[in-house]
Amino acid sequence: MRDGAAATGTRDGATAPGLGLREILDLDRAHVWHPYGPMPGRQEPLVVESAAGVRLSVAGVGELIDGMSSWWSAIHGYNHPVLNEAVRDQLDRMSHVMFGGLTHEPAVSLAKRLVDITPDGLEHVFLADSGSVSVEVAVKMCLQHWRSLGRPEKQRMLTWRGGYHGDTWQPMAVCDPQGGMHSLWQGLLPEQVFADLPPAGFDAYDEAYARHLHDLIGRHADELAGVIVEPVVQGAGGMRFHSPRYLRALREACDTHGVLLVFDEIATGFGRTGALFAADHAGVTPDVMCLGKSLTGGYLTMAATLCTARVADGIARGEVPVLAHGPTFMGNPLAAAVANASIDLLLGQDWATEVKRVETGLRAALAPAAELPGVQDVRILGALGVVQLDHQVDMEAATRAAVRAGVWVRPFRDLIYAMPPFVTGDDDIARIGRAVCAAAAASTAANRGEVRA
Ligand SMILES: Cc1ncc(COP(=O)(O)O)c(C=O)c1O
Question: Which ligand 1 atom is at minimum distance from the Cα of 163?
């Protein structure tokens, strides 16, 4: 690197110390890989200078209302005094120590909280450093459980189509094999068993589909270590909702056929769908549960894999009685401290009423979208509102329209959606709705080759 990250350079717009706006964008394009992005980048990203409450301060643009909670995570908004204080307080004690042979109060306290608030029966907690890693750990737990019990042939996972579980190897193998982002690796990834897409709709239930799940699990039981699903909402695989009753069907089928059940609640956990965990909609305890994203209120990267005593006991009986996984930053005290504060903040308020308020607001604000040309479906559940188009979103047109309306959203595929922080006020929710409608209209116009306003 010659052109100098340390350069103070010309300051052509940005107010942050160090690089100027143009330099940031040029260096970003030259050196920085963004999520799911090409190198060099093709679309110029917005440069965020700071964030507070539900607003992002964007260089050269001004304030944008955040419709994304930074991908499901910032449920309390940004720069929250309580969460800031938790990080500062922990920083003064220690930012990190290794977790092998050492432990500390923030991590132990967090594990206790998670055991207390997740469905009964989940007792043991593995603190991972990202959602994808927590899914790796979940799959490893399932395979090792059976291997330890003398059933090494039980080494496949079953899931339904349309899922998304992360970007590392095992998670990619249980993402949707066709529509998903990882179809490139078909043939290289472990070949898992896929059930049909769950029928759409939180309130719809199809007995025939429940039978399909049961039959498929039964047919493959001898080779299945576990079933893994995103409960109630399939997120990055398509923002689809399904009936919680299928979770009960899965629980029954797994119990009948001797297969472990994993819920990936990385996106749905901590209130987003209107229940504290999506599993609570069904009253089901999985054998393994993954949490992440809003675990730390969106402050720091941390995830958790919880399991029942049965799963842990199985592993302990093996020739190798340990779970061979140990990230360097496992149990990071800063992340654990802010996770504790975030959970206390959430549970210390009437979070369910707040999520309901956001849901009601989104329902009203997105209703006009259903009338727009190019819109196929509008669906809302908890603090999540989705507008599905009949075409691939024109990202540039949609994003520009939303930003012009003062809102940050990040559409993908045929979806424009909003999952605002739970603290978003009613006026801001209304504005998010208007921005999503504007984004949908702009995308449709671009798709049809019409001139945009
Ligand atoms: C359901 C689900 N599982 C796993 C992941 C992966 O988490 P991370 O991005 O923290 O690795 C995500 C991320 O979007 C997710 O939505």
Answer: 1
| CB of 20 closer than 8 Å to CB of 11 | yes
Separation of alpha carbons 237 and 223, rounded Å: 26
H-state helical runs in 165-243:
169-173, 207-220
- Of residues 111 and 42, the one with the higher pLDDT is 111
Residue 443: name the closest of 411, 408, 403 by CA. 411
Beta carbons of 273 and 281 less than 8 angstroms apart: yes
- Which residue ranges make up the annotated binding site? 71, 131-132, 164, 264, 293, 326-328, 410
- What's the gap in Å between 294 CA and the centre of ligand 1? 11
| Annotation: binding site for pyridoxal 5'-phosphate | 131-132, 264, 327-328
The two tokens of residue 209 are: 């589909």
Same domain assignment for residues 220 and 236: yes
Cis peptide before 231 (omega within 30 of 0): no
Residue 143 has pLDDT above 80, yes or no: yes
Q: The CATH number of the domain where 392 resides is what?
A: 3.90.1150.10
Ligand 1 nearest atom to the CA of residue 235, by list position: 16
| Residue-wise pLDDT tens digits, 434-451 | 999 999 999 999 999 986
Same domain, 92 and 43: no
Asked which of 348, 383, 403 is the last residue of a domain, the reply is 348
